[in-house]
Design brief:
Length: 196
């Protein structure tokens, strides 16, 4: 067994907090790009105009996975509206990475006000983003348990409703996935109406 010189070891460089967050969000996005295959296995494609797909997950992914799936298949998301009970810091960072890449233009998050007590670190993170990224993100807190994602692109008005949050989910979740401008407007009115 050979010996080594301590001088041959490369120094461990600890990234700055901002760089670390950026690296983690890229890793998280990469993971979800791989999970798109699970979503592709479930539905095969985007819903056509006025089409509804009923999905039951067989592999673990969360509601966030639909967002890169839409970007990959429909292009830039002009407006992203999220109504959820819970969201993780990883998802928040990945959403901001999509904004930085120009793949999402504006994000609105309506979230349960219980996050202030359950996951205050995420709330602090969201609030700091509002200070620095307010032109791209808005957040409202309220008594919410709904799980709905609205994605407006040049090619459609996509809606995802289901049991999954924007955190780590169980293997089996159910979703409605559809493309319908009137239903999109209805759900958007639901989300904004409750929180304003």
């Amino acid at each position: 067994m050979g010996l080594f010189s301590i001088d041959e070891l490369k120094p461990c460089i600890t990234p700055a907090p901002g760089e670390r967050d950026a690296m983690l969000s890229i890793n998280f996005l990469t993971l979800h790009m791989q999970k798109i295959n699970s979503l592709r296995d479930l539905c095969g494609r985007l819903p056509a105009s006025d089409e509804l797909m009923l999905l039951w997950t067989l592999k673990q992914f969360n509601a966030f996975t639909f967002i890169p799936f839409i970007v990959e298949n429909a292009g830039i998301i002009l407006e992203l509206v999220i109504s959820t009970y819970s969201i993780s810091s990883k998802v928040v960072d990945a959403l901001i990475a999509l904004v930085d890449r120009g793949q999402v233009k504006h994000i609105h998050i309506s979230i349960s006000d219980s996050v202030k007590f359950r996951i205050p670190r995420v709330v602090d993170h969201l609030e700091s983003l509002l200070q620095t990224r307010g032109e791209h993100i808005s957040v409202l807190y309220g008594w919410n348990h709904s799980k709905c994602t609205l994605m407006h692109t040049d090619t459609g008005y996509y809606v995802v409703e289901g049991s999954g949050n924007f955190t780590e989910n169980a293997q089996h979740e159910q979703y409605l996935f559809y493309n319908h401008p009137d239903a999109f407007a209805f759900r958007k009115q639901n989300v904004y109406g409750v929180f304003t």
